[in-house]
C-alpha cells in the first residue's frame, strides 16, 4: 500500500506528502477529509506541510511572505491549531498600580509599593506564558473549547514586575509600548503615599514564530 498522499488544491494544483506527515495531527481535516484542501492555495498548504515535518512545527516562509492572517485562518479551518498559533501575532498587556513610599530612616530613599499585576490577553496564550503564576479567580470563565477567548481579569500571584517581564521575554515577547499616568483627583500636597500613586501599562507583542532558514 502506497505511503504517498496527494492533496488537491485550488486551480488543479496537486501536492505530494506522506501519511506519516499527516498523522502528526491525526484529527485534522488533512487526515480525515480528502477534499479539505480543494479550495486552498497550494502555497499556503505547502508551508503547513513543511511545518508538520518538523518536531516543533515551526514555520519556514519566504522572506517576502506577509499573508499571515490567511495562513492562520486556513490552519484553524483545517484543525492545525499549533501552526495557527505560530502564525498569529500575540499581544499581552501588563498593568499595575504603583505607589512610591519614603523610607522611615531616610526620607530621600523611596520604595516601590505594588499591589497587583493585572494581565490582559488571549486566555490560552496567557496560560502558556505565565503557567501556575497566573491567578484566574476573577475571570468569568469559559469553556476550554473557546480557542480565541480574551480576558482582562487575570492577575499574577506575585507582585514582582521584573519577574513578569523576564517571563514574557523568555517566551519571545518584546515590549512595544508603555505609559504611566497619575490620577487627576489627588491633592497635590497629600501627606500619604497616594500622592505618588501612578498607573502603568506595558504592551508586549510576540510576532509570528518563524524558524530561521
What does this entry show, briefly?
The chain contains seven helices and eight strands.
- The number of helical runs is 7
Terminal residue distance:
34 Å
Q: Let me know the largest β-sheet.
A: 6 strands, antiparallel
Q: Roughly how many Å is the radius of gyration?
A: 23 Å
Q: Give the rounded overall mean pLDDT.
A: 84
User: Which structural class do the helices and strands define?
Assistant: alpha+beta
In total, the number of strands is 8
Q: What pattern of helices and strands is seen along the backbone?
A: EEHHHHHEEHEEHEE
Count of spatially separate domains: 2
What topology, given as strand order, has the largest sheet? 5-6-4-3-8-7
* Helix proportion: 25-40%
Strand content: 25-35%
Shape: elongated
What is the secondary structure topology, with strand pairs?
Blueprint: E1 4-8, E2 14-18, H1 19-22, H2 29-32, H3 42-52, H4 68-77, H5 81-87, E3 90-102, E4 110-122, H6 123-130, E5 134-135, E6 150-156, H7 161-170, E7 174-181, E8 198-206
Antiparallel strand pairs: 1-2, 3-4, 3-8, 4-6, 5-6, 7-8
Describe what you observe in this structure:
It is a single chain. The chain is α+β, with helices and mostly antiparallel strands. It folds into 2 domains: 84 residues, Potassium Channel Kv1.1, Chain A; 117 residues, no CATH class. Helices cover 25% and strands 29% of the residues. The chain has a 6-stranded antiparallel beta sheet with strand order 5-6-4-3-8-7, covered by helices on one side. It has a two-stranded antiparallel ribbon with strand order 1-2. Helix 4 packs antiparallel against helix 5. The longest helix has 11 residues. 20% of the residues are buried. The model has no long low-confidence stretch (mean pLDDT 84). It is found in: Cell membrane. Its main location: membrane.
